[in-house]
Amino acid sequence: MLYRNLGTSGLRVSVIGFGTWATFGNQISDDLAEELLTIAYENGVNFFDTAEVYAAGKAEILLGNILKKKKWRRSSYIISTKLFWGGRAETERGLSRKHIIEGINGSLQRLQMSYVDIVFANKSDPTTSMEEIVRAFTQVISDGKAMYWGTSRWSSVEICEAFSVARQYNLIPPTVEQAEYHFFQREMVETQIPYLHQRLGIGSISWSPLSCGVISGKYTDAIPCMSRAQLKGFSWLKEKIISESGRRQQAKLMELQIIADRFGCSLSQLAIAWCLRFEANNGVLIGATSTEQLMENLKSIKLIPQITNLEVLNEIDNILGNSPNT
Ligand code: NDP
């Protein structure tokens, strides 16, 4: 496994983190979830991500149960959870001081832990003042319920505002942004993150390197019945895949497959290694529904040195045609 510091913090994260969205407490059995988590941990993955909203809290409960059963040293892994959508009531959503404090308490209870390593704001909340948000996350950390806090899907302007408020009132600024990043979604991680990292020391943990499995190549001819796009609640993914732009993406993936074949790797491995090609993206969060997928994806780390070759990167850029830096 390869490890990087999370931004300018001292926290060493495995470049591949394992996420629980869509799978834990939903798509896969509890036994398989335990097996996957064990494989990940035994292969050096030290970062496990969840959220209060995943499977309406069931993902946190399952993750907590497995970790309790495994008895791995708490100091040997990093747990992150995310707050925003905590329940149906008006007061159970958003980034009010009330929801941040009650939300973290609920997550800790479900996880059966006294602290998480990172608590993320799962989304920005324009209806709550930045001062209230930064104060509340500072309190969570001061109370020993989290080590760091981070943002997810925030714009660079919002992240800068959080920093400025933290400096003004001597509060704790966010350490990391969690943004979507893959072949077809590049803007934030390629144009904003390097700047935020250089100026503010912000770290980056990106999510969905396979765009929910689309980049594995499994959707070239049809929508396989045992895939995320067939899950209840994921019709938006199916529609995206069969749309005009989805078909164009599939055509590009067939071209990228040729590069993967040349490297003797799978398209998924090429995609994950590509996301990790620059250090400012400290890690990626992957998901898996089988041990085979997980083992395949973990092996992508070996490809990183090969993919940083400029010719290869240009070749990929020419196929994608969406580099935000040109
Ligand atoms: P990926 O893009 O890696 O998609 C994972 C899914 O793709 C798997 O569940 C599986 O689905 C399929 N897959 C994975 N590997 C392969 C393979 N080798 N071959 C074929 N199919 C494969 O990541 P996720 O979308 O799952 O996101 C990862 C994590 O990121 C989440 O668990 C969560 O922690 C985080 N996240 C954060 C968000 C945020 O707002 N901050 C939003 C979304 C995710 P299947 O077999 O069912 O097709």
Per CATH, the architecture is Alpha-Beta Barrel
* CATH first level: Alpha Beta
Instruction: Give the beta-strand count.
Output: 10
Topology order in helix (H) and strand (E) letters = EEEHHEHEHEHEHEHEHHHEHHH
Unreliable runs, pLDDT <50, ≥5 residues?
none
Q: Which class of secondary structure composition applies to the elements?
A: alpha/beta
Radius of gyration: 19 Å
Distinct ligands, ions and cofactors found in the model: NADPH dihydro-nicotinamide-adenine-dinucleotide phosphate
Largest sheet: 8 strands, parallel, barrel
Q: What is the CATH topology? A: TIM Barrel
> What portion of the residues fall into strands of 2 or more residues?
5-15%
End-to-end separation: 32 Å
Number of domains: 1
The percent range for helix content is 40-55%
The CATH homologous superfamily is called: NADP-dependent oxidoreductase domain
Overall average residue pLDDT: 97
Which sequence of strands runs across the widest sheet? 3-4-5-6-7-8-9-10
- Coarse shape: globular
Number of helices: 13
